[in-house]
Every structure is written in C-alpha cells, then in structure tokens.
Design a protein that fits this description.
By secondary structure, the chain is α+β, with helices and mostly antiparallel strands. The chain has a single domain, classed as 2-Layer Sandwich (Alpha-Beta Plaits). The chain is about 25% helix and about 40% strand. The chain has 2 helices and 5 strands, in the order βαββαββ. The protein has helices at about 20-30, 50-65; strands at about 5-15, 35-40, 45-50, 70-80, 90. A 5-stranded mixed sheet has the order 4-1-3-2-5, covered by helices on one side. The chain starts with a strand and ends with a strand.
C-alpha cells in the first residue's frame, strides 16, 4: 500500500451548502480517510489519507468545485502525514 495524504483549505461559498457532507460521501466512495471541517474564516479544511490514486481523485473533485451547491474559488493544498492514520472520514 502506497499511502499519501494532503491538507487542503477550500475557499468560496463552501459553508452552509452541504459541502462537508458531500466531501464525506465522495471520500467514502473513493475509500479515502480523514475529515472535513468548517473554519472561522468561512473556508473548509479537508484532510485526506489513503491510496495515492484515490486521494488524487478527491483533490481533483475538490478543485473541480465539489458539490453543485458550492462555489469553490480557491483550493490551497500541502502534503500531510497524520501522526496516526484516520479510521474513517468524518465531518466536524
């Protein structure tokens, strides 16, 4: 298994539009672990961990705009190695 991960900050109209729930559903479909959470500045932080191909697919989905109810303006990404691999994909 070649696991990889990222931490992303998604900016735009991404709170109050089901973005975190849609991200969770997409991540679970892809078999990606991690979380999505709202930040005080109106963005959403996404941490993803799993097989490189699936993690890349989730990142591509985020950059493509996520759910149709959202309006993604910018996605900032950095590599991320969690201290402990997550057990599922959760929202908070």
């Amino acid at each position: 298994m070649s696991a990889t991960g990222f931490k992303a900050w998604v900016h735009g109209r991404v709170q109050g539009v089901g973005f975190r729930y849609s991200t969770q559903a997409e991540a679970r479909t892809l078999g990606v672990l991690g979380y999505a959470r709202n930040l005080d500045d109106g963005s959403v932080e996404v941490v993803a961990w799993g097989e490189a191909e699936q993690v890349d697919a989730l990142l591509a989905w985020l950059k493509a705009g996520g759910p149709h109810t959202a309006r993604v303006e910018q996605v900032l990404v950095e590599p991320h190695q969690p201290a402990e691999p997550p057990r599922d994909f959760r929202i908070s």
